[in-house]
């Protein structure tokens, strides 16, 4: 057994070997073919369909999710960019602010025929699909394959909305896929009516018009959509395909061709009849563009609108971009009538000086209702462009228009100076600063503040600022809103010579304080800003008015500024048919090397009881060829032209007068004024009529022809004085004014009269009588003052009279001796010789150059002074006629013989101090 088992093979090995051998030997058998089975086919189709459905669901979900993602990331796009509307003070629309000219219209306000026309033209299956129209897509694909390019869009209204809101206008597969996904998402979030409403308000119609409302107004001038005719509806419905090509203004033929296609579609879909379509075509042939609405594209009143935008940004915090996109309603203070007049007058070249080249004389004007601070109108410049330089806010030198702000206003505010206060108008230097006046203005010495304002005198203005102090002037200017530079701390600030300059807006605001009784004025151009939903974004709240200056100061300043427009003032051309107060101002050209006269800036700032206004004119760049040849006359005339027209029809009112203003009646003008040479007393006899008020004093002024200013020579209560302080061959000019010493107020100057003192014509020695025989001559042939001759009279040598004033009050024979002396001394006369007024007791006497001391011309009773006075001032007004000049004999030694009498000669050269032109002391307006 053990042996068998050792040689026996395993079973498996034997079996495997035998099977391999048998397989190789046996032939292969063919498998039978499977037969077609319906069941199998159904299974396959079910499986394929299921996969397709799953893929479609997944694809749809992906598309929807992608659309949802895009919508979520662009929520702001649902807030439509709608134009903001600006209204004037009366609620009338002025213009629109927009980046895209759009006015949103709710679905209910869009006529059904208009909605249906767009659906029929752009997407007739709009109410049947879910945002993507696969039939339209298929049609588009076929056309694209045939054309071998993307020529057919196949987009639904929803897809067009998606494209306009979120995508570019490229025709690519990826853009179309995104467009479809957004359309699906929109359909899931919005109803069909909401989608159509958004579409009609967003679609572009060309020429900056976005939305159906803007297009209706632009192309047909119709603000209400229900007023659109069938042909107009069809025209608009055909435009979205190609707004520029089918624009009825630019391409009327193409537009009518496209309109015919739309009308045909409307007929096919039963929206209108064929007869209505034919009638619409006939009406369209008569189309004329609405010119007025076309012009609305150009923004009206650009300077005012730019000012409103800047103010809106400042007061509301809104940006300009938000204002142009947010659909706000902005109610402004604009007075459209005034604004139109400003722009009309600024467009008239005759209102400005003619330039030598294309650099025109520029201008600016601002009008403010100082009762409320409401800006009425703005002239930002000639040919002002949107976002240009608004010259109402541009700084320039104000010249004399600044005097009320730094000189007269602060002086009045002290309570120590009044319009009747006397200033000094003398040629004077203050250190290295020597103010000058126009060549047409002569220095007149004493001058009232009102006359200084009226005639725009520089010397007296600087003198007054020096009196009250520069700091007081600067503080007053700051109170009125001016931030002056440290460099302005000098007397030149009196004449408006500023380091940085001021703006017309600032000047109008400052003068508004005078007009408003001294109370603050807050200029503003916006009343209210409302959101598109009617909510209040901003509303103007007037700040509580502050009493910046005393009411009396404002009243006195107004009273003086009214005189500027009266005869003799510098602002007569600003007169209109209602009360006006104002001030002119000019600045010198300052061109190096240019010696001719001319100005850099010309102003008129003024106000009525209702409105304040500032007008500026000048070149932007001043050089030798570009200087103003006139003064402020054209600026004043512009004020009158604009304000006169703009305020026409408004009630005429007067300036308010505070109840506690001191009533001051100016002393009356002196009449019956005359001057003549007194041969007997060897002096100028000055006389006048006594005024009704017996408490008045009289100031007598004199000026020698070579002198630049008048000098007060005496103050008296009498009605005549004798001026013995004159020189032979000299001409003197006199005037007299009544004076209220309690108020320190002078009246209006009398007329001025000049008198010339010639050499006396002496008889020859051979013709002289023997002194011993004088007693044989008739008494009435003797000189009037012969009885006063001292001692024995002897014949003197015939010599030239002395013209030298020894200033010796007792010196006889002196032509100009002072009329001083001990008070109440016997035999003293009150004659006025060439000294200055000095304090002392009344009734002082003194001997003059005359032999003897005639009592005529006595100044007894004069207040606070001796008879020692400077030589004369006022001139005669003989018989109330025109002023004249009397040539008088010279004073000197009295000859013992009879001297020939020289008749005074009248020189009619005196001028009224209120004369507007040609006077010695009144500037030209």
TrEMBL record:
Region (Disordered): 1-33, 743-925
Keyword terms: Carboxypeptidase, Cell membrane, Cell shape, Cell wall biogenesis/degradation, Glycosyltransferase, Hydrolase, Membrane, Multifunctional enzyme, Peptidoglycan synthesis, Protease, Transferase, Transmembrane, Transmembrane helix
Gene3D superfamilies xrefs: Biosynthetic peptidoglycan transglycosylase-like, DD-peptidase/beta-lactamase superfamily, Immunoglobulins
Ranges of biased composition (kind: Gly residues): 841-855
Database matches in PROSITE patterns: FN3
Chain intervals with Basic residues compositional bias: 23-33
Catalysed conversion reaction: Preferential cleavage: (Ac)2-L-Lys-D-Ala-|-D-Ala. Also transpeptidation of peptidyl-alanyl moieties that are N-acyl substituents of D-alanine; [GlcNAc-(1->4)-Mur2Ac(oyl-L-Ala-gamma-D-Glu-L-Lys-D-Ala-D-Ala)](n)-di-trans,octa-cis-undecaprenyl diphosphate + beta-D-GlcNAc-(1->4)-Mur2Ac(oyl-L-Ala-gamma-D-Glu-L-Lys-D-Ala-D-Ala)-di-trans,octa-cis-undecaprenyl diphosphate = [GlcNAc-(1->4)-Mur2Ac(oyl-L-Ala-gamma-D-Glu-L-Lys-D-Ala-D-Ala)](n+1)-di-trans,octa-cis-undecaprenyl diphosphate + di-trans,octa-cis-undecaprenyl diphosphate + H(+)
GO MF annotation list: penicillin binding; peptidoglycan glycosyltransferase activity; serine-type D-Ala-D-Ala carboxypeptidase activity
Biological process according to GO: cell wall organization; peptidoglycan biosynthetic process; proteolysis; regulation of cell shape
Low complexity biased stretches: 856-868
Residues passing through the membrane, by range: 41-63
GO annotations of cellular component type: outer membrane-bounded periplasmic space
Domain Fibronectin type-III, residue spans: 657-760
Compositional bias ranges of the Polar residues kind: 891-925
Biased composition annotated in UniProt, kind: Acidic residues: 766-783
Protein family per UniProt: In the N-terminal section; belongs to the glycosyltransferase 51 family. In the C-terminal section; belongs to the transpeptidase family.
UniProt name for this protein: Penicillin-binding protein
């Amino acid at each position: 057994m053990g042996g068998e088992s050792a040689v026996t093979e395993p079973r498996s090995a034997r079996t495997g070997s035998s099977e391999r051998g048998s397989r190789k030997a046996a032939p292969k058998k063919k498998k039978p073919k499977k037969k077609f089975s319906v069941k199998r086919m159904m299974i396959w189709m079910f499986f394929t369909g299921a996969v397709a459905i799953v893929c479609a669901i997944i694809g749809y979900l992906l598309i929807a999710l992608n659309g949802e993602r895009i919508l979520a990331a662009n929520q702001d796009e649902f807030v439509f960019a709608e134009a903001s509307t600006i209204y004037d003070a009366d609620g009338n629309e002025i213009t629109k602010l927009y980046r895209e000219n759009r006015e949103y219209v709710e679905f209910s306000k869009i006529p059904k025929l208009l909605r249906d026309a767009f659906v029929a033209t752009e997407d007739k299956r709009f109410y049947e699909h879910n945002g993507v129209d696969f039939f339209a897509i298929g049609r588009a694909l076929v056309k694209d394959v045939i054309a071998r390019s993307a020529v057919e869009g196949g987009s639904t209204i929803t897809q067009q909305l998606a494209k306009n809101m979120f995508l570019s206008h490229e025709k690519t597969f990826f853009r179309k896929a995104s467009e479809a996904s957004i359309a699906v998402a929109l359909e899931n979030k919005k109803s069909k009516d909401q989608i159509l409403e958004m579409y009609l308000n967003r679609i572009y119609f060309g020429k900056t018009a976005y939305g159906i409302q803007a297009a209706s107004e632009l192309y047909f001038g119709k603000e209400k959509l229900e007023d659109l005719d069938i042909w107009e509806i069809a025209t608009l419905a055909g435009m979205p395909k190609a707004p520029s090509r089918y624009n009825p203004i630019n391409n009327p033929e193409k537009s009518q061709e496209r309109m015919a296609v739309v009308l045909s579609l409307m007929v096919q879909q039963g929206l209108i009849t064929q007869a209505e379509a034919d009638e619409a075509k006939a009406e369209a042939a008569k189309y004329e563009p609405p010119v007025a609405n076309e012009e609305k594209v150009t923004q009206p009143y650009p300077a005012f609108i730019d000012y409103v935008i800047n103010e809106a940004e400042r007061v509301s915090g809104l940006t300009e971009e938000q204002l142009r996109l947010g659909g706000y309603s902005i109610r402004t203070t604009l007075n459209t009538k005034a604004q139109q007049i400003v722009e009309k007058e600024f467009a008239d070249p005759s209102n400005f000086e003619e330039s030598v080249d294309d650099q025109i004389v520029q201008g600016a004007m601002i009008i403010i209702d100082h009762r409320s601070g409401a800006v009425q109108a703005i002239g930002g410049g000639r040919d002002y462009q949107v976002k240009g330089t608004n010259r109402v806010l541009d700084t320039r030198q104000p010249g004399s228009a600044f005097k009320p702000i730094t000189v007269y206003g602060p002086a009045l505010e002290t309570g120590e100076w009044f319009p009747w206060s006397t200033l000094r108008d003398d040629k004077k230097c203050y250190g290295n600063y020597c103010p000058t006046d126009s060549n047409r203005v002569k220095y007149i010495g004493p001058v009232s503040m009102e006359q200084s304002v009226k005639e725009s005198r520089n010397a007296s203005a600087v003198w007054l600022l020096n009196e009250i102090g520069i700091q007081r002037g600067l503080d007053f200017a700051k109170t009125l809103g001016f931030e002056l530079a440290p460099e302005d701390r000098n007397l030149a600030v009196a004449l408006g010579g500023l380091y940085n300059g001021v703006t017309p807006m600032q000047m109008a605001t400052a003068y508004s304080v005078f007009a408003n009784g001294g109370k603050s004025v807050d200029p503003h151009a916006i009343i209210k800003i409302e959101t598109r939903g009617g909510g209040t974004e901003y509303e103007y709240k007037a700040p509580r008015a502050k009493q910046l200056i005393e009411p009396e100061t404002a009243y006195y300043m107004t009273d003086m500024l009214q005189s500027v427009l009266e005869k003799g003032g510098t602002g007569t051309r600003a007169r209109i048919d209602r009360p006006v107060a104002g001030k002119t101002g000019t600045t010198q050209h300052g061109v190096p090397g240019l010696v001719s006269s001319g100005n850099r800036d010309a102003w008129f700032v003024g106000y009525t009881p209702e409105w304040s206004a500032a007008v500026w004119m000048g070149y932007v760049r001043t050089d030798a060829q570009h200087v103003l040849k006139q003064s402020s006359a054209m600026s004043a005339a512009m004020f009158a032209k604009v304000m006169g027209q703009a305020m026409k029809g408004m009630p005429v009112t007067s300036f308010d007068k505070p109840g506690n203003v001191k009533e001051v009646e100016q002393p009356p003008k002196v009449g019956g004024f005359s001057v003549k040479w007194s041969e007997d007393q060897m002096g100028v006899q000055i006389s006048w009529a006594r005024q009704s008020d017996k408490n008045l004093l009289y100031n007598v002024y004199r000026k020698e022809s070579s002198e630049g200013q008048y000098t007060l020579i005496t103050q008296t209560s009498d009605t005549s004085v004798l001026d013995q302080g004159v020189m032979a061959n000299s001409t003197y000019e006199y005037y007299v004014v009544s004076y209220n010493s309690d108020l320190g107020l002078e009246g209006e100057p009398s007329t001025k009269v000049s008198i010339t003192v010639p050499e006396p014509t002496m008889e020859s020695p051979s013709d002289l009588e023997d002194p011993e025989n004088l007693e044989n001559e008739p008494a009435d042939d003797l000189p009037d003052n012969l009885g006063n001759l001292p001692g024995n009279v002897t014949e003197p040598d015939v010599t030239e009279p002395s013209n030298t004033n020894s200033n010796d009050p007792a010196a006889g024979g002196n032509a100009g001796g002072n009329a001083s002396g001990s008070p109440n001394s016997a035999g003293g006369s009150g004659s006025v010789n060439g000294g200055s007024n000095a304090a002392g007791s009344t009734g002082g006497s003194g001997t003059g150059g005359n032999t003897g001391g005639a009592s005529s011309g006595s100044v007894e009773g004069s207040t606070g002074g001796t008879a020692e006075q400077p030589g004369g001032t006022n001139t005669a007004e003989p018989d109330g006629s025109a002023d004249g000049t009397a040539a008088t004999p010279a004073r000197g030694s009295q000859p013992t013989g009879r001297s020939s009498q020289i008749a005074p000669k009248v020189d009619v050269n005196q001028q009224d101090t209120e004369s507007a032109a040609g006077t010695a002391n009144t500037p030209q307006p």
